[in-house]
Amino acid sequence: MQYTIAIARPRDVPLLPAIELDAARLLMDYAPAPLLLEATGLEVLNAAQRRGHLWVALADDVPVGFAHVIEPAVAHLQEIDVHPEHGCRGLGTRLVMAVCEWAAAAGYGSVTLTTFRDVAWNMPFYARLGFEVISLEQLSPALLSVVQGETRRGLDPRRRVAMRYMVRHAT
Predict the structure, then answer these.
(1) φ and ψ of 76, to 5 deg
(2) Which residue has better confidence, 141 or 77?
């Protein structure tokens, strides 16, 4: 199977919520069940696609994963998912690195995200890619708002962590 990473095309968008829901099943022991039944809305994904803030992992030209960035002052990796049938093939790494490369080209100083502290394929995965934990005291107002929103939705803030990747600009 041939895998590629690309900017999402309009035809990719309707397939992404199902990928998100399938990937969410891997978090059954870590997140409240109702949250695992939520997927990013098509209107949000379509808007991200139009802005160039949505990447897809394609298997023979069919989406099997995606990364979605929002910009609350920095590039924030809002969502990344790979369908479990295509996991452990480096697609998550390739999606994250595509986002980091985009952020560098767009002039951002960093890429931020929030993730589970105690899930092996979450915080440790991002740490291996060069992301560092941001203490609560160091959170920007925009990132603090993301964390507070997660808490309101039922995610335990003690199990979550904010992380930052410092973008390396070409000289």
Answers:
(1) -115, 120
(2) 77
